């Protein structure tokens, strides 16, 4: 697993700021609620790709597996929340995914390539944050977040592989464009704490 984490740390433009980790530890109920939303959204994104690109067997296979895993993670988060008397409810979305997707091109194949790159970045950041948080959490949450690392790392790789195939050419420059946006979003002060927010401004 360490090799996969090293790969993700090399891929991402920055580490999660210490201030965000402090925010997370101070807002663990909110962390769980938003984590549940993130898992559900990840499954929804995978299913949406399956509906849109029905002629792409590799994508269908990888996204089907990914959607099942994300929904399982969603169920696991809800189970932990129930045991802790945390109520699942609506939250305003983080700016993170919306800002990344603003750069996505409108027409295929560029659109597909960009959506897949964004998916890879989100999965990589999720994996990095689970690993960053785990040492600071109680045993139950630490074990759970550690258990997610392997699948999140695989999801990141799946998205990148699919993006490279969809592009039919190197995607380094296009990926760098999105990573620059991601770095700004991760390091810039945010107004609300979310799983993918920047540090909350004092």
Automatic annotation (TrEMBL):
InterPro entries attached to this UniProt entry: Ferritin-like (IPR012347), Ferritin-like_SF (IPR009078), tRNA-Hydrxlase_MiaE (IPR010386)
Annotated SUPFAM superfamilies: Ferritin-like
Gene3D superfamilies the record matches: 1.20.1260.10
Signal sequence annotation: none
A Pfam family annotated for this UniProt entry: MiaE
PANTHER family named among the record's database cross-references: TRNA 2-(METHYLSULFANYL)-N(6)-ISOPENTENYLADENOSINE(37) HYDROXYLASE, TRNA-(MS[2]IO[6]A)-HYDROXYLASE
Protein name: tRNA-(Ms[2]io[6]A)-hydroxylase
